[in-house]
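re: that complex we talked abt at group meeting.

here r the seqs, copy pasted straight from the sheet so there may be weird spacing, ignore it
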Amino acid sequence: MRFRFTEVAIDTQAARRDLLDRGAGGYVSFEGWVRDHNEGQDVTRLEYEAFQALAVKEGERILSEALQRFPIKHAVCIHRVGSLDLSDMAVWVGVSAAHRGEAFDACRYIIDEVKHRVPIWKKEHYRSGDSGWVNCERCAAAPHHSHDHGHNAA
Amino acid sequence: MSSTAAAVYSAAAPVYGLILAGGASSRMRRDKAALLYQGKSQLDRAFELASRHVAKVFVSVRGDQKTEPTRAQKPLIVDSVDGEGPIVGIRSALTDYPGVAWLVLACDLPFLSDAALEQLLAERDPSVLATAYVSAYDGLPEPLCAVWEPAAAPALSAYQSAGGHCPRKFLRRHPARLIEPRDRHALDNVNTPEEYATAQGALHSYVHTSPMQLKIQYFALMREQAGRSEETLETSAATPADLFSELNARYAFTLSREQLKVAVNSEFSEWSRPLIAGDAVVFIPPVAGG
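got the structure back, here u go
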């Protein structure tokens, strides 16, 4: 699968090999890392959970869209699930293309769509001892808050 | 299997959906396509139903219906051949998209189910002109719940040129595969205000008097608040919206329905989709990947 989950560290060297193509002049990748703060709180670790049966379908749809919209060669996205520490890689996107411009554009498109559409959830654990599901706890207090814009840039 | 049969089978045309919504609805005295069942127009229901089984779905309309609001939001096939009645809609689709077979559905079949379409498509025979259900009442073919093959186009044209206009009579005189629906009410249609009232009542009592088993999976915040990752539930909830109300009464979720999306059988779904026994439902809280 071009979109997949892993419970262990993402092997970017292996993933990069899926992008190799003699017609490609380069590749662009994006790594999302676990950050030590969000919304004014000190974050100590994260847990990711996914509804994988649907998430893989939606992720594949996003990669297909990118391949249709941009003249690129290959696109791959790998997302972690489970418990992650600070600076761990949570998500990896790689795109190869004949030219760099399309590779950058497609990579940006994929990570943006993945964050908004794929059923993956992130629970933050804070230094204060609290924890919370990102985009869910504050939504519950503010019913008109939109789902779609993640607060927590990966 | 002979090589000829294999060739025929491998050459089976792709199937698109065609919802017939060009009727004048003279007996109903109002637009049948816009009639509501469980809050959704007949046209929307038929369109969504077909969309779950074929790659593309179009609405067949007369030229003067192109801008009518119930229809204008959908991909349309406007009548392109002369004549009147559903045969014109079927011929127009076959003419506009050569090489495509059409799952043709009348929009006035409120009892039509996913299971009925699955059966029709599974038992489709691409080597004849059409695969159609036969009515459980009169044993006659039902041309408006049928798969029409590309090869039907010239035969339909010749039939119309010879003065024919009834697709049911056409099917009786041409090679077609006729199959019996497992649910004898699946093809009950609705042509009068009285039948409409009866059908609404029947749908209501059907869904509310027959409890069924559903599987519900929970993720993230919903999992924590339900205190479980999945359960099998005996319920009479007709739709995901009803099911959410029932479960919310039990678990007091902090997220409201407006903040959630819903999936049925691992695909995003409308809240108003009719549920059937064995469906697996997931309520999807706001996502936060990346």
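couple things i noticed - Residues 193-209 of chain B form the longest helix (17 residues). Chain B has ten helices and 14 strands.
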